[in-house]
Structure formats: structure tokens, C-alpha cells
Amino acid sequence: MWFLTHAWLIPALPALSFVLILLFGKKFLGPTRAHYIGIPFVLAAFVLSLLTAGAWVSRSNDHVDSEAAAMSGIDAKCSEIGAAAAKGPEALEASLAGEARTEVTAAEATTATESSTTESSTTESSTAESTSADTTKAASTKAEPAAAGKESTAAEEEHPTQPVVRCATWWQNDDSVFTIGTIIDGQSVMMLVVVTLISLLVHIFSTDYVKGDRRYTHYFGFLSLFTASMLFFVLSQSILQMIVGWELVGVCSFALIGHWWEEKPNSDAALKAFITNRVGDIGLLVGVIILFFQAGENFSVIDINTMANTGQIGHTYLLVASLCLIAAVMSKSGQFILHTWLPDAMAGPTPVSALIHAATMVVAGIYMVARLYPVFFHGLSISGSSVNFLAIVGSVTALFGALLAFVQKDIKKVLAYSTVSQLGFMVTALGVGAWTAALFHLLTHAFFKACLFLGAGSLSHACHHSFNMVDDMGGLRKVMPKTFKTFVIGTGALAGIFPLAGFWSKDEILAGTGGLNAANGTYTFALIMLLLAAFCTAAYMTRVIWYAFYGEYRGHGEPHESGARITVPLIILAVLGAIAGFANLPKSILGWELPHAISLKLEHLIEPVGVFFPGKDAGFTHAGFNFGLALLSLGIALAGGYLTYLFYWKRALKPLEGLAERNKLAGVGKKILVNKYYLDTLYTTIIVGAVKGPIAKATYWFNQNIIDGAVDGVGRNAVKAGQFVYDTIDQQVVDGAVNGAGTVAGNTGGGLRKIQTGHIQQYAALFFAAAALLAGVFVVVIG
Amino acid sequence: MLLIQFLMLSAILFSIGVYGVLVRRNGVLVLMSIELILNAVNINLVAFGTASGPSGQVFALFVIAVAAAEVGVGLAMLLMIYRNRRSIDIDQLDELKG
User: Fold this and answer.
1) Is the ipTM of this complex over 0.90?
2) What are the chain A neighbours of B30 within 8 Å (beta carbons)?
3) How is domain B3-91 classified at the CATH fold level?
């Protein structure tokens, strides 16, 4: 239990590592030893994640003892509604009594309010009221499966494992409290393990791969921060916290993609990744704002999910919110039309690409949809339709991304488009309601895609840091046997070859679309697109293997196998990529029941059950193992691989060679693919070009003529007014008065000057005259 | 009472003195005319002094003493003017003209 309530330590450790590397990395450890800090901290985070996962597994296994589980589950401070919902099973047994009990507490709280009139008691009373309201709702939603009287599975669902939610007050504004905290449930525990494991392996790989780099310390600092922000995002208790994690991940990807920023294309790629993500972030912000206000000014994930599930948020709001959030998913998870940043992001160091593609950045979108699944499930009416926006985006991305991988020369770009395509699979899975399949594929994909990326890094390490598999590689099978074997395993897993991991997860997605019968709730379009994408996946990966490992070596110098710090992570990932599929074996294959102990383990562990997740009554179903479909997809994958084998190894498909040069239609198709559907042209030339060209000019004209005109006019009139004041008031009135006074004084002086003759007798005459006059006046006045 | 007569005499003397001061160009005669004015005042003082005690006569004696000093200074000035200009015509002394 301690591990479940102290999960905040897991993101805190890499964050601390980032701070330490930032402050002391270079000074105390020197420029080549930053990993002395990074690796131990990430290792500690990984160990903690494993322990947390262990604690979660034992919690799920003990969930029959639901008393203890529900007691310490959701902290009422974090989500009032969720905490009320957690009490569901008890309320189920005596719903009326439960209601009465909560009413009593509500009444008590109201009397308390009247007597003491403190603010805390008012919130208490509202809590109690909402508790009573939601317990009834929870009870009503719970009642149906119980009434249906299911067998053992239903009995399990009646005692769901509650997520462990803990939080602290982030900040408080008046009476709204914004919390920050952790949710520990199967989904986040799975991500914790994946993220820390991949990050740890990437750290180890990097110590060799970026050895001697001029910004080695900086590199490891940002790896730590990247890991920390993804873990922070994964554990988000409120959607506000999710935004913070989401943006932190974006910033770190910017810094790491542009790690070698001295070269212009690299910094351009970093900018592109950042700015393209901004486009989707608008959607994220709008979606979050809608959810916040519709959920009664509440950011809590559990509360929003519960309210979406119980119908307290209107369908239209859910629809708009989910569409906005899909925009965010499209940019972050590289879905079609906003995926263009992802292949360019290959400009960063290869371990970073592995981290971005397998564990940290691009799966954030998938995780967000999975986390807020009720919003999407009800908003898009996933269970009741045959087509929705999420499924279309996903399936189109799956196929179009796979097609683009065919024309790439750069091995990392092939893998990048492959990631785009695989993310399309996951989004489709979410779009068709196969929630567990999406997360299962996320898990398996993380392992084999990290393996492939690190393998590509190992190849380029051997081939003078070139990624051009067409011109600089070839025949590496013999010199790099470990890389070759792990790469082939990764390829097999990606293509979905039995019994590697990709087979199981991809198949679950295909089964989740509902098969080929065109009934309501079956996504036939998505299924066809995914099957085509599966064919392409097998084909383009076989092409990569041909170019990289077979034929003659076309590069310079002598290639050599990489060192242990590169191959060991590869081997670990290849093993995981091979066996991860057994984590969620189907319950029965062709009527042959697998033992309960080994089947659907992942589903039991990670899939939430409760009012904050769509239940059976809402139409949320699990597709069983579809043997025909599995055989079909395996056949398609093998066919794709075999055709490519014939084309490259045997040269047996002569008519297809050089087809693009001879056939006009094929030429046009290739041109479109080489130009990446002209999306970059659309963005840089048309949109950015329009902004830079005509729109900028028009804005300049508007600025110069309208705005400046107004400002200039005001200025000119002010000058005129000033001139008028100067001319009339200052010059004439004020100066006139002053000058007039001077003139009068001067004239008076001039007049009086004439008296001053210098003749003393004249003075005397005046004196006596004045004296006589005064005497006269004196006599008259006195007399 | 002979006061009126004294006053009349004094007024006549005063007027003659004023006339002399204003009209005469010879500096010595102007000084003499000033003496007439002073003596007219003396007569006044003495005349009023008979009515109000000896202070008028004392005052008159002071005036005579001061007048003697005044004449001394005045004649000295005239002498200096004469030495400088070979004339004591005070009409020519107009350097203070504004």
C-alpha cells in the first residue's frame, strides 16, 4: 500500500536527477560523466515502478476483500464524486439504507452550518449532498449487471479494484481548490514500468552512443527531465496536471530533437515538432476547458469520467470535447495530417528517437484518450455506430503512414513512419472500443519499436553515423550478428508474426473492430484499412532488413559490432518484444479454454471497472479471440514479407522492378509518396507561405495605411492644435501682456525722463510748486 | 498780538528767497536767497516761540548755526566750481540731465 500512495516519488526521482545534473553535472563530474547521476536515479525510479506494479497486482488479486480496497482507495479530497462512487458496492447491498445514511449526514452538516456558519462546514454539506446523489446513481448503474445475474466474471466486477488516488492542494482560488496528485491504477502502473524501463535502457545505450558529445551533460539532463515529465503526465490526477505534463514532454522533445542544433535542419525539425504540437494543443486547451466547466468546475479525472459515464455531462458537450481532444491526439501522437513533425524528429540522437517513439512522447496522446475514455466512448457513441472520427483518423493513419515507409532511404524515417502507422492502430483500437487492445499494443509496441530504433542506432554507429540504408549499409548480417538477430525479432514482432508480441496485440485490435459482418458496432472500414496496413508493415520491414543486412556492404570503412552497452539493451528489448504478447493471451482459442491463471492477465490488471469507466450496460464489450481473423492477418503479414523477399532476394518479380519509371500511374503514386502527400508543401508553402507573403503584405498595408494613418492623423492634428495655441495664445495673449507691460513702463520712463533736466533750479521750482500744492491741499483738508 | 505781522514778514522773506533761488543764475546769490529762506523760518520760530516758550528761540539759534555751516560748505563748493569752470553760472551745471 505504501508504494501505491507514494507514487509521486517515481517522477520526483528523475526530476531530482535533472536538477542535480543541471547544478552539479559539469562542475563535479566533468563533461563526460553525467550518466553517473542519471542512471542511478532512473534505475531507482524503475525499481520503485516495479514495486508499485507488484503492490498493484497484489491489490487486484486481493480485491475480493473489497472492504479494505475501497476504504483506502480514492481520497475524497481529490474527487468527491469518485470517492462516493467507490462506495458503490456497499451502497448496492442496501441502497435505500445507504441513501438514508448519507441524508442523515447531510442533515447533520446543514445543522452544523446553521450553528457555526464556518466555510468548511458548508463545503462539507455540499459534499454530503453530492455523495447522496451519486451513491444512488452508482447504485442504479451497478444494479443492472447484478440483476442480470452473470457468472464468475460478473461476480468479479462487483468487487472492482479501486484506483488509489492521492493528492495535495496545488493552489486555491476563493473556494475552488485545484489539486495535484497521483492516480494509481492498472493503466498508470503499466505506463510507469514501460516508461522507466525504456528510459533506463536508453540511458545505458546512450552512454556509448553519444560518448564524447559536446553537450553530454545537457543530453542526460534532458533525458531525465523527459522521463520525469512523462511519468508526471502518466500519474496525473487532474486534467490540468495532464496539460502541464503534456507541455513538459513537448518542451523536452524540442530540446532533444534539436540536440545538435548547430545544423540548421536539426533546429528546424525541433521547431517543427514544437509548433505542430502547438496546433493540437489548442484543441487540448479547448477540450479541457469544456470538460472543466461541464463537470462543475472540476479538473479531477475520476470525477469527469464518472460524470461522463453517468450522463451528467450532455452528449453534445462530450462530442465537442472529444473532437477537440482528438486534435491534440493528432498532433502529439502523430496522426494523419498532423504527423509531419514525427519523421523530421529523427534529426535528434537515435536513443532519443527510441524514447520519443516507444515510451514518452507520442504515446501521450493514446494514454490521454485511454485515461478519459468515457468522454470519448459516450461522446463519439463508439458502441453504437460503425464509424466515428477517432476510428477514421486511426485507420487512415495506419495505412497512409505504412505506405510512406516504402519510399524512405533513411532507416530511421522508415521506423518513424512505422510508428505513425502503429499509433494509427492504437487510435483505431480506442476508436472501435477495444480499450485494452490499444494499451496492450502500446505495451508491446514500446518494446519492439524501442528495440528497432536502438538497433538502427547500433547500425549507424557501425556505419559512420549514416542512416541511409540504401547507400551506406548492406551485408551487415555477418559483422553485426547480435544487432541482426534482435532487429529480426523486432521486425517479426512489428509485422505480427506468431508468436511474437505484435501478433497478439495487433490481433486483439483487429478482433476489436468487430469482424467483417456489417452490423451496427462493427468497424468494417477500419478493419480493411488495418489489414492493408498490416500487409504494408510486413513488406516495408522486410525491405529494411534487405537493405541493412543483406547484399553487399555499400558504405565506407569497416563496420563492426557495437559494444555491450548497446547490445545488451537490444537483447533485453528483443526478449521482451518476443514474449510481451503472452501478457494478454486470449481466454479461448478455437474453443480450447486457456487456464484462467495465464489468460487475459493484462486485461484483468489494467482495465478499470467501476462507474468511472464504461461498463457492459453502456455497450463496452471485449471481443474474443477471432481465429479466422488471426489466421488472415498472419497470412497477410507473411504474404507481405514473402513478396518482398521474392522482390529483393530472388529478383523474381521482374515486372515490378522499375515500375514507377515505366508506368505513369505508378510514377504518380511514387511521386505523391516521395513528397509525403504534399502535406509539407501544404504547410510550408501554402499556409506559411501565404502568411509570409500576401497575408503579411496585406497586414503591412493595413498597418501602414489604416493604423498608422489613424495615428499619423492624430499626430498631425495635435501639431496643428499646438501651432494654434502657440500663435494665438502664447504669442499674442501672453507675450502681448508681457510686452505691453514693458512698453508702458518704457514709455512712462521716457516721459518722466524729460523732467530730469539737470538744472537744479528747475528741480527747486518743482519742489516748491509741489510743496505749495501740498500746502494748499493741507490747508483745504485741515481747514 | 503782533504774530500775524511776523508771519507776514516771514512769508514775504520766504517768497523773496524762493524767488531768488529759482531765478538767480549766480550761485552766490542763490546761496544768499537760501539764507533768506532760512531766516524767514527763524522769524517764524521765534514768533511762535513767544507764545509757547523758549524752545522756538533755541531752535532758531540752532538754525543760525547750521546755516553758517551750510554757507561755509556752499561757498566752498562754489569756489571749486569757479576754479574748474571759471564761472559760477549754475545754469551750465546740467551734467545730471537724464
Assistant:
1) no
2) 761
3) Helix Hairpins (1.10.287)
